[in-house]
Amino acid sequence: TGFDSDNSSGDFSEANHKVAEMLDLDPHQSNRSGKHNGETEIQENGIKRHRTSLPAPMFSRSDFSVWSILKKCIGLELSKITMPIVFNEPLSFLQRITEYMEHIYLINKACSHADPLERMQAVAAFAVSAVASQWERTGKPFNPLLGETYELTREDLGFRFISEQVSHHPPISAFYSEGLNKDFIFHGSIYPKLKFWGKSIEAEPRGTITLELLKHNEAYTWTNPTCCVHNVIIGKLWLEQYGTVEIVNHSTGDKCVLNFKPCGLFGKELHRVEGHIQDKHRKKLCMIYGKWTECLWCTDPATYETYKKNEKKGGEQKKLKPSEDVIKSENDEADDMPEVQDTVQFIPGSKLLWRINSRPPNSSQMYNFTSFAVSLNELEKGMEAILAPTDCRLRPDIRNMENGNMDVASKEKERLEEKQRAARKERAKDEVEWHTRWFHQGTNPYTGTSDWLYSGGYFDRNFSDCPDIY
Fold first, then answer.
1. PANTHER family attached here (predicted)?
2. What 8-state DSSP symbol labels residue 154?
């Protein structure tokens, strides 16, 4: 989610100019380990080795306050606020969406199972893993420009992915992915609704996500949980996911209900996910529990209920050990981030559905990116010749930010936003409507709700009529 807008008043853009002055970062002195910008290595097995770090380390945000910007915006619509680049991470929101595919092995696992219950378990794990990369990612991705696209083909992982920014007000991102073995199709559209609650910013998800398992002739749909960023006024920024996610198998009638629990007053429920899978007659088939920041387990309902009863029967005998419980100083502010150890109370006999990938050792210096995220903006040799001219990798503001050139990145960001505003005014003057290139508005065939559907043809690489947005 993001705040930048093509009809922002520009009243807050002066904050961008102050960014470079306050940063003590020389891109020429930065750590440039690994291969970058066209120097991707080839392993012995012929599979490309993607980069393992960014060209320049992350800068410190300690001298900046989100509140210094937001306090000027009371009463304004959040989607029309221009935030300084210091609060960004060097990825477009279209690239952030692509991080759904980090745990694609779960889709492959779902395709391989003959049992529909096991397929639903794998799909549920995939839905939870899709938000796992957001853990500790408090930098906001760049708002995509209208008509911006992003493609990713990973032969080693067996998929290709295309997304497009199909609307700017409201901001809507549409995506489509397919298995290279023609075993699945994954598509959807996302248009989050932002709310500012004073101390926090909440992004309520809108849009349907659809996964089709072609071999089994099955389709699953769901909507992501709500994401909330806390301590935007003072303190350390932290985020949580909460809300109920319902995954529906439209072929069998099975449903998975996942409850992403809110943090609570003392943080004991932070990151926790609990739920169940039920058949079309509402009979519970299995129970699911874990944390979206760590792992997900499942067990049969009888075992789960017995465990819960014993937990209550013994009073607090099954309570977490003090070292695993919430550690909170008396001097902490009430809205400070609860510090908890990432551990899940294991119920004997449970089956592991998913565990989060370990992050690179230098992740904290790279905006807390996962290894998958680090590779997303990599521009390999010869890629410019085949990419659509609207691809995120070609955005000069993101590219300069990634390279540590913050002053240039800030100026490029303003230039692109002004170019977008001018193009919009020109279309209004000539009474010309904007036409999306790779997606069209239609109806989701499984839910009957409005959706953005892939029109096809992107990988034919006819980019002659793509708009000039950079």
1. OXYSTEROL-BINDING PROTEIN-RELATED, OXYSTEROL-BINDING PROTEIN-RELATED PROTEIN 2
2. E
CA–CA dist 135, 360 (Å, integer): 14
Strand bridging mode 140-142 / 88-92: parallel
Question: What residues make up the domain containing 274?
Answer: 67-310+338-357+384-459
Predicted confidence band of residue 207 (pLDDT cuts 50, 70, 90):
confident
Token pair 């009529």 is found at 465
**Is 32 contained in some domain?**
no
User: 463: which 2 tokens?
Assistant: 């980019």
Segment 12-25, tens digit of pLDDT: 333 444 433 333 33
Is the preceding omega at residue 170 within 30 degrees of 0, hence cis?
yes
What does 210-271 look like in DSSP terms, one character per residue? EEEEGGGTEEEEE-PPEEEEE-SSSS--EEEEEEEEEEEETTT--EEEEEE----TTSTTTT
DSSP assignment of 350-403 equals -EEEEEPPPPPTTGGGTTT--HHHHTTT---TTGGGTS-TTBGGG-HHHHHHHT
Residue 50 covered by a domain: no
Mean pLDDT of 456-460: 96
Residue 229 lies in a domain: yes
Number of H helices, E strands in the chain: 9, 21
Exposure on the CB side of residue 283, measured as CA atoms within 13 A:
6
Domain count across the chain: 1
CATH of the domain at 119: 2.40.160.120
- Pair 6, 421: CB distance under 8 Å: yes
Return the number of other C-beta atoms located less than 10 Å from residue 153's C-beta: 11
Write out the H or E segment, with its range, that includes residue 434.
none
> Which residue would you say has higher pLDDT here, 234 or 7?
234
- pLDDT tens digits, 80-120: 556 678 778 999 999 999 999 999 999 999 999 999 999 99
| Residue 100 belongs to a domain | yes
Give the separation between CA 291 and CA 311, rounded to whole angstroms: 19
Torsion of CA 182, 186, 187, 191, to 10 degrees: -160
Q: What is the pLDDT of residue 466?
A: 95
Question: Which residue, among 375, 354, 399, 386, has the nearest Cα to 463 in the 3D structure?
Answer: 386
Binning pLDDT at 50, 70 and 90, where does residue 316 land?
very low
